[in-house]
Amino acid sequence: MQFSYRAIYLSGLTLLLLQVGCKDKTSTTDQESTERTAHFPVADYIRSELKEIDSLQLPVTLYKSGAEGTDTALLSTAECTNLAAPFMEPDLADPEVAGFFTESSFADQSIPSITFNYTSKEETMALKRVDVVLKPDPSVSDKVRTIYLEKSFMNGDTLVQEKLFWNDGHYYQIMRTKTTGTGEPLLSQVKVVWDPTE
């Protein structure tokens, strides 16, 4: 599914990386861009993926494991959307949020891929890190391969740490660890799959 904001943003970034890549003969190019606050629109991208799942009425399966055991169930598209909410909050493209993040990017010509890394500069921000990996394509807009997010926040007296992974067109996964005081961490995992080949 083509996404116009993503296409415009990625085309410009690809041209910039290609220009830098032509000047540097090494296999990877590192470029810090701390002054710019226009970050990859992760929340918009996730919404476009969820809209595609809903419009195609793809079968969605939930795989869940944790202290309560394991379970597999079919999900409605509404449930799929609700479970994906942590990927969209906070919205990295929101100018009020973007200012708290530093962007770096590099192109790996051996794969080929372009990775955008966003790291929080604010200690109190729940979202700590975002990695967006793209497959460059000069004939059409670049394609998202994966998105990875890390969060860490307090919920009352419980430390919650989340690792979220989105595999374009296939599935998303959320690993959550909850630690209260000096107690043992409780790990839970949710994997939501809409690609029948997974």
List the helices and strands and how they pair.
Layout: H1 4-23, E1 28-33, H2 42-56, E2 60-66, E3 69-75, H3 77-83, H4 95-98, E4 101-108, E5 113-120, E6 127-135, E7 143-155, E8 158-167, E9 171-180, E10 186-193
Antiparallel strand pairs: 1-4, 2-3, 2-10, 4-5, 5-6, 6-7, 7-8, 8-9, 9-10
Helix pairs in contact: 2-3
Description:
The protein is of the alpha+beta class and 198 residues long. It has one domain (4-193). It has helices at 4-23, 42-56, 77-83, 95-98, and strands at residues 28-33, 60-66, 69-75, 101-108, 113-120, 127-135, 143-155, 158-167, 171-180, 186-193. The chain has a ten-stranded antiparallel sheet with strand order 1-4-5-6-7-8-9-10-2-3. Strand 8 (158-167) and strand 9 form a beta hairpin. Helix 2 runs antiparallel to helix 3 (77-83). The longest helix is centred in the N-terminal third of the chain and has 20 residues, at 4-23. The two termini are 20 Å apart.
